[in-house]
Amino acid sequence: MTYRIVIEKKALKFLASVSKRDYLKLQEHINELAEDPHPFGSIKLQGSTNIYRHRFGNYRILYTVESDQLIVYIIEIGNRKDIYR
Fold first, then answer.
1. Inter-axis angle of helices 20-35 and 9-17, to 10 degrees?
2. Is the pLDDT of residue 47 over 90?
3. Count H helices, E strands: the chain?
């Protein structure tokens, strides 16, 4: 069962600003979320109802999952020091 990925404008803007190598790695992690939206290491953020974090090196991918519609919304992607501000 494959989920559809929807990437918000803010996340797309960040993807456009990273190096090609990091872009390809981030894209690989995003595609993995389509196969399994709750992979090992994915953590639900405290104080939120449905926001999860997936870690990749110094980058974080924040996303929500709508299991009934099979959609993963990528809310934000950023460096670990800036993402939670």
1. 140
2. no
3. 2, 5
